[in-house]
Design a protein that fits this description.
With 347 residues, the protein is of the alpha+beta class. The protein has helices spanning 7-17, 33-42, 56-59, 62-65, 106-124, 141-147, 194-198, 216-222, 244-247, 272-276, 280-286, 297-311, 317-321, 329-346, and strands at residues 21-25, 71-78, 96-97, 130-133, 152-153, 159-160, 168-175, 204-206, 209-210, 238-240. Helix 1 packs antiparallel against helix 5 and helix 12 (297-311) runs parallel beside helix 14 (329-346). It binds cobalamin and iron/sulfur cluster (2 copies).
């Protein structure tokens, strides 16, 4: 349906609500996505994320997800760190938590903002209908954001913008309003391969294609059970997510400051020894309000033990030994591995 709201007005309101950038595309603007998603799933690159293989007809084709939608408003919200996110990798007795998880859970904050923009849209055009999505719905946010002109999918597969860098969260508002689509942005990766080269586990099958099963973000957050032994040394001290391919991207010199200070952690990384002592209740308390909480205490303990094993620090033998009789078999396996590795490091 034709609308009298201009995109400039929507953009202005979205910025007032806290978003850093906005763009519009049609729901049928990502015709290659379905096939690429199918290849990804057929090759098993999604690992244990079984939900990616469900509702593929919707995920790969936003026009099928909601046939009445006429426009997709894509929004980006900056969470640019104020410290060097890779500095913690040189502090083996600390646990590296990726930037996006150092502060408050973005899902809650972005969703509230999306709803605020959505409510405002309906006030301006009461005939409009909207649906808002962030992260967990069967919507491919990166190709949609690229189609809406916010940037391009870099070789690390994340959205990068010439004036945004890649430290942004994405969210979508589908609407029945007809809005003028933006032009997709050009790929500006050129000959650069910094993100592919830095990846500790060589998780990229090719530029623009990730095998999640090798990605530390997947292994530390999504993967249940023991991490394959050959990949454990490459985790280093990363205990929740990984920022290497994002942090190295040269376009971050144009990154915008985060508007939401609740995303900005103190930059202080937690001590592995302290984390190893957490029971379930203490874990929940420590990570209250953070996305880390969703991974659960046992998986975090597993990650902490791999980091202890990689630390070479003999003072971490005692905290690892204390977990040898943990009720969780995966934690016990990780404790044994950590102790064997520390013993080998002692020589
Ligand atoms: C599943 C998922 C993951 C998985 C898999 C990631 C992946 N790349 O597939 C795991 C757990 C590994 C993960 C990790 C991370 N994630 Co994640 N994740 C998602 C989720 C839920 C779906 C992504 C998806 O659809 N993947 C399936 C594949 C097929 O899609 P794709 O990556 O877009 O694949 C494209 C390319 O491969 C490309 N392609 C394929 N072949 C070719 C060939 C050529 C020539 C070209 C040009 C392109 C091309 O086309 C495909 C389709 O567009 C989205 C939220 C959402 N609903 O979209 C968040 C999301 C992508 N994640 C996000 C973040 C922040 C991260 C991490 C940085 C977190 C961290 N610090 O640990 C890491 C980054 C790791 C990385 N290098 O990608 C943000 C990214 C924001 C941004 N700037 O782009 C999102 C959008 C969440 C959000 N709402 O903000 N994530
Ligand atoms: S997040 Fe880390 S492990 Fe995953 S692709 Fe990027 S650099 Fe590799
Ligand atoms: S690091 Fe280089 S190749 Fe990777 S996304 Fe950034 S510009 Fe593209």
């Amino acid at each position: 349906m034709p609308t009298l709201i201009s995109k400039t007005e929507i953009d202005a309101f979205a910025r007032e609500a806290g978003f850093t950038a906005m763009g519009v595309c049609r729901p049928d603007a990502i015709p290659q996505a379905a096939e690429r998603l199918a290849t990804y799933v057929d090759e098993g690159r999604h690992g244990q994320m079984g939900w990616m293989a469900e509702r593929m007809a919707w995920r790969g084709n936003p026009a099928a997800l909601w046939p009445d939608a006429r426009s997709v408003i894509m929004l980006a919200e900056a969470y640019t760190p104020e410290h060097d996110p890779l500095a913690v990798l040189d502090q083996p007795s600390k646990g590296a938590v990726s930037v996006y998880a150092q502060g408050r859970d973005y899902h809650d904050i972005v969703k509230k903002r999306l709803k605020r923009v959505g409510r405002w849209l309906i006030e301006q055009a009461p005939e409009a209908q909207i649906k808002v999505f962030v992260d967990t719905a069967p919507v491919m946010e990166k190709p949609l954001a690229a189609a809406a002109g916010l940037g391009w999918q870099g070789k690390h597969t994340n959205l990068v913008g010439r004036d945004l860098g890649n430290w942004v969260f994405l969210g979508a508002i589908f609407t029945t309003l007809e809005l003028e689509p933006d032009k997709p942005a050009r790929d500006n990766c050129g000959n650069c391969s910094a993100c592919l080269d830095i990846c500790p586990t060589k998780a990229f099958v090719a530029p623009y294609q990730l095998d999640a099963r090798r990605c530390i973000s997947y292994l530390t957050i999504e993967h249940n059970g023991p991490v394959p032994e050959e990949l454990r040394p490459a985790l280093g001290n990363r205990i929740y997510g990984c920022d290497d391919c994002l942090a190295i991207c040269p376009w971050n010199k144009f990154a915008k400051q985060a508007h939401e200070m609740r995303y900005i952690g103190s930059g202080e990384a937690p001590d592995l020894a302290a984390l190893a002592g957490l029971d379930d209740a203490a874990f929940r308390l420590w990570f209250a309000g953070s996305p880390v909480k969703r991974t659960g205490r046992d998986r975090m303990m597993r990650n902490v033990l791999y980091a202890i094993g990689n630390s070479g620090r003999q003072e971490l033998v005692a905290p690892a030994q204390a977990l040898l009789d943990d009720p969780d078999a995966v934690v016990v396996d990780a404790a044994r591995w950590a102790l064997a590795r520390l013993s080998a490091a002692k020589g």
